[in-house]
Design goal:
Layout (H helix, E strand, L loop, with lengths): L10 H24 L18 E6 L38 H10 L2 E6 L20 E5 L7 H12 L3 E5 L14 H10 L11 E3 L4 E4 L2 E2 L9 E2 L2 E2 L5 E4 L2 E3 L8 E5 L9 E8 L2 E6 L27 H13 L15 E2 L14 E2 L4 E2 L12 E5 L5 E11 L5 E11 L9 E7 L5 E9 L8 E6 L6 E11 L5 E5 L3 E4 L1
Parallel strand pairs: 1-2, 1-3, 3-4, 4-14
Antiparallel strand pairs: 5-11, 6-10, 7-12, 8-9, 12-13, 13-14, 15-26, 16-19, 17-18, 18-25, 19-24, 20-23, 20-25, 20-26, 21-22, 21-24
Length: 490
């Protein structure tokens, strides 16, 4: 997007903006209206008796820093607080107001904004929790998501939610915190506790493409290119980037709009994919969704109505597709897709997904793994010592949940006294102990692994931390060895 990053706008782009402003002055508001999307079409077929599509726009990741104004309205969380029945984009204040107003006018959408200062959550009691929405829009985020926020977003999509990712060019760090949208989105996909192995089948390219008018592929059956809001023929890039598709990692990844001269797996400017039961859309620039007006003091660009692209139709069709996932309730308790929620449950990827005392997750000899070569080996020192192993996980609302911990206990203790202990606990997001699921000691030593199973249904709809704590006395070792863990929901 123009004028917001650390990089200076190109002369070509500056000239384009001046030309657009001049055209608006000469033709007045009538010309701008001439390219405004047509009145809302009939209700999309995917809307059912359950009510309108619920869409949450993010404003918690510096979406208004610098010249950005990526909000549908200044009234937050409810944009209708500014105008309950908007008929024109200026009825709501924000550079994304055209998008919001167009959805609001159909009567098929319920829109909210996650205000600055809030955290992204999934499975909590908050009214703005992702479980209460069908689609989540991240419009050029400029702050890295926390570990718990990445877990929330990924679980939301995995359980049926729709995720709309909008990037900008590399170097567009509007709030100067060291992270731009390219880095934020790639970090979400490559460093989360749910699936960091290229879950969506694409990665964001570190590019700054000054200007281009990318064209749509020919696909008469694609619902995003041929949706109820109009036919998509192309888009615009005014300082943006693309993605590289990796269909070997996720065959659902698909490029819909390509940079001029690109095709196949490279240069996709607009792409879609799926993950679990949910859907994902990516756009490589914020300029196409910028309607040119917003809060005072921002330098904006009217890409929404730029005749070089059909950006309004693309944004609206994609929103409808994301929100209309068949059978989706955004992870709300209308049903529960069976899944195993722990990341790296067998420890074969080392410490990935887990927080542990140094050396606990290991492939060293002395205690055998149940399967593979790695296990979590707590204790075994024979000196006063404490080891911990933990992982944060979001249990979807409405699900039955069961934790499985195959445990082997080996000890050198001979006295019938519990000198060395292991506790399995559930902690809240603030670290408070909610429950001790099980307690074991050197008295429970036995050959081989014993399956330990715990019901976690009471924590459905919450993000909790599962923690094992082993405490040894000052003499004689006791080893508590875990492998092939699982947290299954159904």
């Amino acid at each position: 997007m123009l004028g917001a990053g650390r990089l200076a706008p190109s002369p070509r782009r500056t000239a384009g903006v001046l030309a657009a402003i001049g055209a608006l002055i000469v033709a007045s508001g009538a010309a701008a209206q001439a390219v405004t999307p047509s009145p809302a079409p009939a209700r999309p077929a995917t809307v059912g008796a359950a009510g309108p599509h619920r869409v949450l726009f993010d404003n918690s990741k510096a979406e208004t820093a610098g010249n950005a104004d990526w909000i549908i309205g200044t009234s937050q969380p409810d944009p209708t607080g500014q105008n309950p029945s908007p008929s024109a984009e200026k009825d709501w204040t924000g550079a994304l107001s055209s998008w919001g107003v167009a959805l609001q006018k159909t009567g098929d959408y319920a829109l909210k904004t996650l205000p600055s200062g809030n955290a992204i959550t999934y499975g909590t009691s908050s009214a703005l929790d992702l479980k209460n929405f069908d689609t989540f829009v991240l419009p050029e985020p400029n702050v890295l998501l926390s570990a718990s926020e990445k877990t929330a977003v990924m679980q939301f999509v995995k359980n049926g939610g729709g995720l709309f990712l909008i990037s900008d060019h590399t170097g567009s760090d509007r709030n100067n915190d060291g992270a731009d949208a390219v880095e934020v989105i790639n970090d979400l996909m490559t460093s989360n506790s749910v699936d960091s192995t290229d879950p969506f089948g694409f990665s964001v390219d570190s590019l700054n493409i000054a200007t281009d008018n990318p064209r749509a592929v020919t696909d008469s059956l694609d619902p995003v290119l041929n949706g109820t809001f109009g036919k998509v023929t192309g888009s615009i890039i005014r300082n943006g980037t693309t993605v590289t598709l990796k269909p070997a990692d996720n065959p659902a990844a698909k490029g819909l709009v390509y940079r001029t001269g690109s095709s196949g797996n490279t240069g996709a400017f607009f792409a879609t994919s799926t993950f679990g039961s949910g859907r994902v859309a990516f756009w490589g620039d914020s300029s196409p969704v910028d309607d040119g007006t917003g809060q005072s003091g921002n330098t904006l660009y009217d890409g929404w109505n730029d005749p070089a692209g059909t950006d309004a139709a693309l944004a609206l069709n994609a929103t409808a597709w994301l929100a209309g996932t068949a059978g989706s309730s955004g992870g709300d308790p209308g049903g529960c897709a069976g899944a195993q929620l722990l990341a790296n449950p067998g420890f074969e990827s080392g410490s990935s997904g887990w927080t542990a005392t140094s050396g606990v997750i290991t492939n060293r000899s002395g205690e055998a793994a149940r399967t593979g070569t790695y296990k979590a080996w707590l204790g075994g020192k024979g000196t006063a010592h404490t080891d911990t192993l933990s992982q944060s996980v979001t249990i979807p609302a409405g699900c039955a949940a069961s934790l499985s911990l195959p445990l082997h206990i080996d000890t050198a203790e001979t006295a019938r006294t519990a000198y060395d202990t292991l506790k399995v606990q559930v902690l809240s997001g603030s670290g408070a102990v909610l429950a001790t699921l099980g307690s074991y000691s050197n008295l429970n030593a036995a050959s081989g692994y014993t399956q330990r199973t715990f019901d976690l249904g009471a924590y459905a709809g919450q993000t909790v931390t599962l923690r094992c704590t082993a405490t040894e006395g000052s003499k004689l070792q006791t080893s508590f060895v875990l492998d092939d863990t699982a947290l299954t929901v159904s």
